[in-house]
Amino acid sequence: MFSYVEFCLWDAMDDSSNFQRNFSTGEVEVVGSAIYHKTEYRERRDHYAVFWANTPVTSFDTARDAFCGVYGGPAEPEAVKAGRCSNSIAHGWAPVGAHHFHLTLEAGETRTILFGLGYIENPVDEKFTAPGVINKTRAEAMMARYATDAQVDEARRALADHWDKLLSTLQLHSGDEKLDRMVNLWHQYQCMVTFNMSRSASYYESGIGRGMGFRDSCQDLLGFVHMIPERARGRILDIAATQFEDGSAYHQYQPLTKKGNRDVGTGFNDDPLWLIAGTAAYLRETGDWSILDESVAFDNDVSKAQPLMEHLRRSFRFTRTHLGPHGLPLIGRADWNDCLNLNCFSEHPGESFQITGPSEGPVAESVFIAGMFVKYGSEYADLCDHRSLPEEAAEARAAIAEVEQAALTAGWDGAWFRRAYDAFGQPIGSKECDEGQIFIEPQGMCVMAGIGKTTGQAEQALRSVEERLDTRYGVVLLQPAYTTYRLNLGEISSYPPGYKENAGIFCHNNPWISCAETVLGHGDRAFEVYKKTCPAYIEDISEIHRTEPYVYSQMVAGIDAPTFGEAKNSWLTGTAAWTFFNVSQYILGVQPTLDGLKIDPCIPHTLPGFTVTRRYRGAVYHIRVENPDAVQKGVKRVTVNGAPIPGNVLPIAKAGETVEVTVVMG
């Protein structure tokens, strides 16, 4: 039996480029069945890795060429063909860890070998036990914790218990096995992964340079905050510290230093409003108003620190003071769609689509940000109300009303909301355009914000989505796809038709359409949209979809693509948070508010009811929803512990209490 790992040299960019140095730095130590990787530990690093087994080793290798062969590789290693390793010690080149065990088993006999891969940090004054010999005390303690089958089994049980506790915050029983499986397990699990990793490192992201996105991380909170609110709190404060004093923000920041990426900088004008969205979600979940009083730096400069409430105020003010000729918010370098670059004019290969040229102009406007401003600006006004700031709340709502009116007029194209205006004042996402006549983003966000709900424009916009953007695998981002590169649009037109932002099925904003349908009471349509990209419901097309059948992908090839229905970029995507947010709060209708849980389902008429167990602010709510009249939306009555209550917002129970809730739709 053989084992094998390749060790990184601690710096992904340097590892893959600075070979003249790093082919000479690799160092290891071997003690028994433990292989210690200690490259650069002799100088500035205080950490090393250890790869071990709990069984005496027959032979080992720590040099890749020795194990794989000079012309070989892991698929057919020379050591495996030879039947043993050569006990090589790496001196530079490529350090690896490989064990060889010669085993003889009788018929029916079973043996277990435990392998572990660990990371150790030592205090600087405890790095060595002798000259050149690393201090292994902490590594030995780690290996001792996982030395037997029983210890590993217990650790795995503890891990399972940990996940059971996290996932038990919300559990659904609907009678639909696929829906229950997604809501109870995979939606929430993927939300945890995206919260931890953002978009920084996966099969599709190298982990180099990009770090954490300001917008991405704020949206990830929407699907995560109910599981570990205290970690969400810390993330909000970290994100806010990368904001500038004018309310704008670094578009990305590094999770280790928690400082903004200066190479990308600022100018993505939707970013500030996402901070309001994430903070408001935290407050609805926890009722922890103290977070607004936390002192938070601007641009990580503590001398400029202000309470978080002031950060939100400046987020709101930034959008309010950056309006264009039509009274719509300026787009800057881009909004949510990083590939819609209306101010950048990238003409030559190698030029950034986002930061080439003027990049932040006074003309190009975003109807999508207008929808955001109405939605999240209203949430900011609600926070002002709860902070006893009625004048500020009224002022905010007046500014929101002006932008809403601009969206209904300058932002309306006759049958749907326009996407934007370019740097020359020409409409994008309009019937006046030869391509890219209708986009998904403003239809979802504007209707979620309630824009056009009373005028009929919201209904018309969603009809246009169904007629012009919907496909059997999901709603595409735009139609018709761009067939040529447009200098005034940027990266969006650089992709072949049907891929990514150029008319791909962007799974991230499909939930916006589902959410929007619930705003109008369309439970059947909302659930239909939800199911089209939901992994559990498309298992029968796995040979087309081609990514894991339990997690969401960023993108599915659109109807214009030769590979229509094929997914890409699974796991790390804002789709995770938005789909869980959609199904739990908009479809099932279990909605945290500033004043308690609101129950407002919008479900397919064929669903006779469901039960949800929801842990909320320390209490446990057992919620039974009944749908005797087969309606899609509407609450007829609510009882709490057997007593009827007015409305559908549940009184906040004391921590530790269990509350029995019955909701009858009608």
As a percent range, the share of strand residues is: 15-25%
How far apart are the first and last residues' alpha carbons, in Å? 64 Å
Secondary-structure content class: alpha+beta
Work out the number of β strands: 31
Shape descriptor: globular
Question: What's the main sheet like?
Answer: 6 strands, mixed
- State Rg: 27 Å
Our count of helices gives 19
The level of helicity is 25-40%
Uncertain stretches of 5 or more adjacent residues: none
The order of strands across the largest sheet is: 10-27-28-31-29-30
Mean pLDDT: 97
Which tags fit this structure?
single chain; 666 residues; alpha+beta; 6-stranded mixed sheet; 4-stranded antiparallel sheet; 31 strands; 33% helix
Question: SSE layout and pairings?
Answer:
Blueprint: E1 5-6, H1 12-15, H2 19-22, E2 28-31, E3 34-37, E4 47-53, E5 59-63, H3 64-68, H4 78-82, E6 95-100, E7 115-121, E8 128-130, E9 133-134, H5 137-145, H6 149-167, E10 170-173, H7 177-197, E11 212-213, H8 214-224, H9 229-240, E12 252-253, H10 271-286, E13 295-298, E14 301-307, H11 308-320, E15 365-366, H12 367-386, H13 390-409, E16 420-421, E17 427-428, E18 438-439, H14 440-448, H15 457-468, E19 470-471, E20 474-475, E21 478-479, E22 505-506, H16 510-519, H17 523-533, H18 542-545, E23 553-556, E24 567-570, H19 575-587, E25 590-593, E26 596-599, E27 609-616, E28 619-626, E29 635-640, E30 643-645, E31 658-665
Parallel strand pairs: 28-31
Antiparallel strand pairs: 1-6, 2-3, 3-4, 4-7, 5-6, 8-9, 10-27, 11-12, 13-14, 15-16, 16-17, 18-21, 19-20, 22-23, 23-24, 25-26, 27-28, 29-30, 29-31
